[in-house]
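A note from the maintainers: we've had questions about how concatenated examples are separated. There is no special marker in the raw files; a new sequence line simply starts the next protein. For clarity in this README we add a label.
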Amino acid sequence: MAGDKPAKDPSKANQRGAARLAAVQALYQMDVGRAPFDATVEQFKLFHLGKEVEGEEYLPADEDYFKQILDGVRTYQVKIDPIVDNSLVEGWPVTRIDSTLRAILRSAAFEMLYKKRHSGSRRHQ
């Protein structure tokens, strides 16, 4: 609700939800604005995650989860896009749909298909 302040100590689930929202926004920015990965991650860490943006205060986000989603989409995008393409109406490839929806679908597909595997490989590096 407008004007309500987020809880000072949000649950881990809320931090992950905030990370997902920020990841979709960052994926959109990288897609539409052709912003570089590292610069986008840094910008979101400094100016978006848990900050006030355009008068709205965002919940603190799990920074590691945020980065895992972005890194995962970047890593698996060549596998994710054909899967999304096959789920869309014929003649509407993922590259043709709205940029916001494309970011949502890519991040969701990464989490459903690759997140567990990707996180495990990062822990052992």
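[label: protein 2]
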Amino acid sequence: MSARRWRGLQALRRCARGGATVEMALVFPVLAAFLFGTFEIGWAMHCGATVRSAVEHAARPLLSNATTSAATIQAAAQADLNGVPVKNLQVTLTNENLSGGSVVLVSWQYTYDTMLPFVPTTAFRFDSSTIVPVD
């Protein structure tokens, strides 16, 4: 290798122009995916809390009327979910007898579809339940 070429390679190695651009091009996609993922997880948790609140609010009539149906509770909960992307909410009721009296187990489930850039849509299934005492 000639001395002239060798000096040119050394000069290129010392040159830092464009280094920040290359670093940003390498780091930005990972940082953006992390940031969008954090927002998406936060939104999914918010939706889960909103669904829980809507179902618990819709199940309150069970306290005074034990014949309230799951369809009635599901419709009332779905009506409370304005702005929340939950379309497939399913509510089930199970009557149980305990030593202290009767209770109704109100269970619900729904799927949440993630919407992240550059990532295929993934559906997460959320479910939970609450107990309502009836007499």
